[in-house]
Design a protein that fits this description.
10 strands; two-stranded antiparallel ribbon; alpha/beta; TIM Barrel
Amino acid sequence: MVTPLPTTLAQLLSTADVVLLDGAMATELEKHGVDTSSALWSSVAMDSDPGAIRAVHRSYLDAGSRVLVTNSYQACPDDFVAAGWERSAADKLVCDSARLALESVREWSTSGQDPVVVAGSIGPYGAHLADGSEYTGNYRLDEEGYRAFHRPRIRLLHEASIRSFGIETQPRLDEVLAVLGLLRDEFAGTEAFVSFSLGDAGHLPDGTVLADAARAVTEFSSVVAVGVNCVPRGWVTDALTALHEATDLPLLAYPNSGEVYDPTTKTWSPGPDQDQQAALVPQWIQAGARLLGGCCRTSPSTITELAQLTA
């Protein structure tokens, strides 16, 4: 078993004004020739090309990321089983998402580089549905249903020495509260950041007021930061302002590239915010952002620019 890294996200935030997350995984894997078109999305690379995952992690570390997120956003053991893997192999692939990130950090850190945290990515139940539900929140389980869904992945990541978790792209507050309760009750000694997807700059896709969601997660002592991801860059300042008024937790944001996705043609086109990161980052920091990174269609160059803007 790979041993846990010595630094926590809480410790990292206590020593730096702004900490950089990483950026998109799937589109970077595609540049390495990985086919991400199946329901497993980027998770398939744990089997087909783990070296590509290592290369992507390394590229983000070189760009300035000090928080790496495991390639487990859509890596549920049941989904691997449904795709044809034996259960033991499916469990190993989830663990591999942690191992690849942790080993990448250790290899990179041998030259005395800055401390890095690896956060286990916990995508929503909607991502498992593979129909875009993580952006709509059009699903619902009871608390035990959510716990039963998330428990196997969290257990495997925990067994693989992950102690920090990224509960990310979350469209429903009830699901987030269930996951945080699961961490509290069954995985003592862990920490988490919570990142919501949005229906608009002030609401989750399920209709919850963003400020209310922030207040709710602040009640959990394991939460070390809260914010938004997988959102348009133009929404971030207003979202952070609302969060800042609702909680004293460090805030985070890792929006999309600024390009616009057409679900009919499944293509991306230039958007109004694509070249606005340099202009917007000072606003985000003024609004309280302490963790910054990128989501869909971002790349190591996105993080390089963030590093320059926050130096």
